[in-house]
Write a structure and sequence with these properties.
72% helix, mainly alpha, globular, 15 helices, 443 residues
Length: 443
């Protein structure tokens, strides 16, 4: 990165390519992926150490959960404003500044830990500040990555991003133990600060490619003036866009009654299947492998739709229901691999739709709305699932949850099919355009 010149833009990918790695043919995307790998490793180093640090300070597991909740809480209340800021401000500048600020927070924490001046209050304040900055940094980074590839390669970029996240998590968790063992707890925070600065240093050299998702189509209206870029406009677009509402419904019901396998499968393995911690570790490993394979398959998509997301989510839910009836650990392992793969492909397809469907000047606010809604799911889902497990047991929760997800999605697809407008010819009148057809809502 010593060169002062901008990274050159690669030639557009061949339209027929379905390679999951096609987004990496663009040099900017390769640099962005490398930067995200470093950043994810640093983040997981800090997260791994942070829980231990809270336990050392307070000796309370509840305090550990509180620190995580404080960091996540801003996503519920501030994400709409963060998304509006992403739409209003230059994207590259926004990412560079937000990454630098996150680095400053990490360095501050490292200094307090090194000087033995850290306490629970300061940790909670720093966690809250990190959460607030992340409401801007998250959507800005997601959309900047989309700027670096043609719109048809966005699923590939998202799939590569999922793989980078998984690799960064593994590397960061392993490096955290080494760093703490040789250099102390503060070193993990300092390493995370350096990772943020690395990302910020790469951003100025990135250039959008021709045909990127950020470029408006000729039929799209021009972006409004900054004074018109309100949070309300993003909310209004989201609730009036049937495909985004449907996507939110699919993701919401899947998040509440599925996906929480750390809870449901843990109870199933250690309860009805009479396995131990080792057996659940094996199941968790297979789930992780399935998620990685699914990310690779999802990266092959070119034009995913909400229908694709729904069918995949329903398929994963049916596999979940069958997994709930597993008579042994061996049968469960056979089922959870395709279950995780299908759900990972569904997630990749849904993220691609979410990030490319809104017009460019609204994407930050739409992601802000999505972040707020997703936080509600993540906070409300586990308690609801816990109540279902208490009432029906682990098997009942997996079976009932899977059937509820699949049934709801199937009903939605059926209603949509019956509600599609019939194309009819319109007799032209004086002053009318000829050859028009009745217009229907795109969903």
């Amino acid at each position: 990165m010593s060169s002062a010149s901008a990274l050159p833009t690669s030639a557009p990918a061949t339209p027929a390519s379905r390679s999951p790695w096609r987004s990496l043919r663009h040099r900017g995307m390769r640099w962005w992926s490398a930067a995200n790998l470093v950043s994810n490793a640093g983040t997981w180093m800090q997260l791994t150490v942070q829980n231990l640090l809270v336990l050392q300070i307070t000796g309370s597991a509840a305090a550990t959960g509180l620190s995580m909740s404080v960091q996540a809480a801003p996503a519920l209340f501030v994400s709409l404003l963060g998304g509006a800021a992403v739409d209003r401000w230059p994207r590259k500048l926004t990412v560079a500044v937000s990454q630098a600020l996150l680095g400053a927070v990490a360095f501050t924490t490292a200094l307090l830990v090194a000087l033995d001046r850290i306490d629970m209050t300061s940790l909670l304040v720093l966690a809250a500040v990190t959460g607030i900055i992340a409401t801007v940094d998250g959507p800005a980074c997601a959309l900047l990555g989309n700027d670096l590839v043609p719109v048809e390669d966005v699923p590939s970029a998202i799939g590569v991003g999922a793989l980078v996240h998984s690799a960064g998590r593994l590397a960061g968790t392993a490096l955290a133990g080494v760093a703490v063992g040789f250099l102390g707890t503060a070193s993990a925070y300092a390493a995370n600060g350096l990772s943020f600065l690395f990302v910020a240093s790469v951003v100025p050299f990135l250039r959008p490619v021709q045909g990127a998702a950020a470029r408006p189509a000729a039929s799209e209206p021009a972006a409004p003036a900054p004074t018109e870029m309100t949070v309300r406009e993003g909310l209004r677009f989201f609730v009036r866009r049937p495909r985004l509402v449907a996507l939110a419904g699919i993701t919401g019901i899947s998040s509440v009654f599925g996906r929480n396998y750390g809870l449901t499968l843990a109870v199933l393995v250690t309860g009805p299947l009479a396995g131990g911690a080792g057996a659940f570790g094996t199941v968790s490993t297979v789930l992780a492998v399935g998620g990685i394979l699914g990310a690779v398959l999802g990266a092959r998509l070119r034009k995913p739709s909400v229908r694709t997301v729904g069918l995949l989510a329903a398929g994963g839910a049916l596999l979940q229901a069958v997994a709930g009836l597993s008579p042994s650990i061996a049968v469960l392992l056979v089922l959870v691999l395709p279950m995780a793969m299908v759900e990972s492909v569904s997630d990749t397809a849904g993220t691609a739709v979410l990030q490319t469907d809104p017009p460019p000047h609204l994407r930050g606010r739409v992601l802000g709305v999505w972040s707020s809604v997703g936080t509600v799911w993540s906070l409300g889902g586990p308690p609801l699932l816990g109540l279902l497990m208490q009432w029906a047991g682990a098997r009942g929760a997996l079976v009932a949850g899977g059937l509820l997800i699949a049934g709801s999605i199937g009903a939605g697809l059926l209603v949509r099919r019956r509600g599609l407008p019939t194309r009819v010819s319109v007799t032209p009148k004086d002053g009318d355009l000829t050859g028009r057809e009745a217009l229907g809502t795109a969903a």
